[in-house]
């Protein structure tokens, strides 16, 4: 392979999915032939792959490094691949014939009815390998290939999780050590901060605007730490699409710059992206996974926002070595997410195919876009002069800064509640929840348009009362 050809492919790596694939194949070939990485891709990253060249051990904390396979769960994985005719005197599974369910069927919004066959019912009622239901895993690989460019599944893996949250918690618990630095957006998803907080980390907070996290700030923070010989972060947490609570989408160009920084400073990106299909853009944004030539992205997807949060299904995609450690953690925690949920999702994906799925995503997207527009109109009518905001470009949230209020704690937890209207206070999304925050998060997902109108009018009333009481104090 001539260097010129390689350079050409790499320089175009963010352009098409086909080229992404060629990069991975090239990178793999280089690793296999034990060639030291010499070329640069358009993000400026050296082409290495932590799976083949590096087993990921630099990133693992002690617990993850010590995690060994659970022998019986490993056998369960093998057993799942054997024909049904194999005589199983080995595993400690219950007999599904003793269970009270005789049949399971479900109806879709399109009117289609899906009935599980006897064989599928038996799978739905039984334990599964910890990685997930094999047929669903294959479908998910097709989905990732379609939306994020063809992946090299020899070096990447997928773990089915109980929502994106479980993938996130397993990632955090695999990498973080007490007191470690970690990059987080400000504000950030509260349950992500809670996960990190348990490690008493050194939070490196990066502010956001309408186009996502501010890259210059991240660059300066990393540069300064390096110059000052401070410990460098191994992990960066980002919630790129329809961020909770900020409502923004990280611009593709910023993502490329961030990915470049991650390569430069050897950082893993936790791409927590449950709102990916709820973006209000012309086309889906480029994911970090689609740019990942170095195996340093763990992408966390979720069915919660587009299929059902009650299914508790998500999936983590990343380097095989990372996914393997997460699988080992799964072997010792919940064993695996619900088999019934996994088979329901599988049947739905088979029934609809990618095209049907896309149609459904469009329906959901349209619904939230209309709700967003209604919310924006209500906010403009009632809150002009009282608050500042930007238009959410995805997700379910509007992030609002109240003018003249240093802290929204009393406004939300007292004045608004007295009016029977609920908002999330800004402090809940900060790394230091004790600090005052002038923000509130407004959700436009479940409230009806009438409730939105009424709720925002009540908010305006509450803000005025709050400002008045501050002046008279
Ligand atoms: C940013 C973010 N990440 C993860 C989750 C968890 O979602 P899941 O239901 O997939 O676990 C949520 C849910 O609100 C979220 O907003």
Write the layout of secondary structure elements.
Blueprint: H1 3-11, H2 17-32, H3 62-66, H4 71-81, E1 105-107, E2 113-115, H5 118-124, H6 134-148, E3 156-161, H7 163-175, E4 181-186, H8 190-197, E5 202-209, E6 212-213, H9 215-227, E7 235-238, H10 252-264, E8 268-272, H11 288-291, E9 297-302, E10 314-319, H12 320-331, H13 339-383, E11 387-388, E12 397-402, H14 409-418, E13 424-425, E14 439-443, H15 449-472
Parallel strand pairs: 4-5, 4-7, 7-8, 8-9
Antiparallel strand pairs: 1-2, 3-10, 5-6, 9-10, 11-12, 12-14, 13-14
Helix pairs in contact: 5-13, 6-13, 7-8, 7-12, 13-15, 14-15
The structure holds pyridoxal-5'-phosphate (PLP).
Pyridoxal-5'-phosphate is lined by residues 163-165, 189, 239, 244, 272, 274, 302, 304, 309, 314.
What would the keywords be for this entry?
single chain, binds pyridoxal-5'-phosphate, Aspartate Aminotransferase, domain 2, disordered N terminus, 15 helices, eight-stranded mixed sheet, 473 residues, 3 domains, Aspartate Aminotransferase, domain 1
């Amino acid at each position: 392979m001539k260097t010129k050809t390689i350079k050409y492919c790499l320089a175009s790596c963010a352009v098409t999915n086909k080229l992404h694939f060629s990069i991975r194949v090239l990178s793999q070939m280089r690793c296999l032939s034990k060639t030291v990485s010499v070329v640069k891709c358009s993000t400026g990253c050296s082409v290495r792959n932590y799976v083949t060249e590096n087993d990921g051990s630099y990133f693992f904390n002690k617990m993850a490094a010590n995690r060994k396979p659970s022998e019986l769960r490993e056998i369960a994985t093998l057993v799942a691949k054997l024909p049904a005719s194999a005589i199983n005197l080995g595993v400690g599974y219950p007999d599904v014939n003793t269970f009270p369910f005789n049949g399971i069927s479900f109806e879709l919004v399109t009117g289609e009815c899906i009935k599980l066959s006897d064989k599928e019912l038996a799978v739905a009622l039984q334990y599964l390998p910890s990685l997930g239901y094999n047929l669903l895993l294959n479908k998910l690989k097709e989905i990732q290939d379609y939306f994020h460019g063809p992946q090299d599944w020899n070096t990447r893996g997928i773990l089915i999780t109980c929502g994106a949250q479980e993938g996130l918690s397993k990632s955090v618990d695999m990498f973080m050590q007490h007191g470690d630095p970690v990059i987080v957006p400000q504000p950030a998803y509260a349950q992500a901060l809670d996960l990190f907080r348990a490690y008493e980390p050194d939070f490196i907070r990066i502010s956001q605007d309408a186009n996502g996290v501010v890259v210059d700030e991240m660059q300066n923070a990393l540069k300064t730490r390096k110059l000052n010989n401070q410990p460098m972060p191994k992990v960066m947490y980002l919630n790129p699409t329809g961020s909770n609570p900020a409502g923004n989408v990280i611009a593709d160009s910023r993502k490329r710059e961030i990915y470049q920084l991650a390569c430069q400073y050897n950082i893993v990106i936790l791409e927590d992206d449950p709102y990916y299909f709820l973006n209000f853009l012309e086309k889906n944004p480029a994911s970090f996974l689609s740019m990942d030539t170095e195996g340093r992205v763990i992408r966390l997807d979720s069915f919660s926002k587009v299929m059902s949060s009650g299914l508790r299904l998500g999936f983590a995609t990343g380097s095989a070595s990372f996914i393997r450690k997460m699988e080992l953690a799964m072997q010792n925690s919940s064993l695996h997410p619900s088999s019934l949920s996994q088979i329901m999702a599988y049947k739905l994906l088979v029934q609809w195919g990618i095209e049907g799925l896309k149609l459904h995503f469009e329906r959901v997207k349209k619904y939230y876009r209309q709700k967003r527009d209604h919310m924006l109109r209500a906010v403009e009518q009632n809150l002009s002069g009282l608050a500042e905001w930007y238009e959410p470009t995805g997700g379910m949230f509007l992030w609002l800064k109240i003018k003249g209020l240093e802290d929204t704690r009393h406004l939300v937890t007292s004045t608004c509640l007295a009016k029977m209207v609920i908002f999330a206070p800004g402090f809940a999304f900060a790394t230091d929840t004790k600090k005052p925050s002038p923000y509130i998060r407004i959700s436009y997902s479940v409230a009806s348009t009438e409730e939105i109108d009424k709720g925002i009018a009540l908010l305006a009333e509450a803000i005025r009362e709050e400002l008045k009481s501050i002046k008279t104090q």
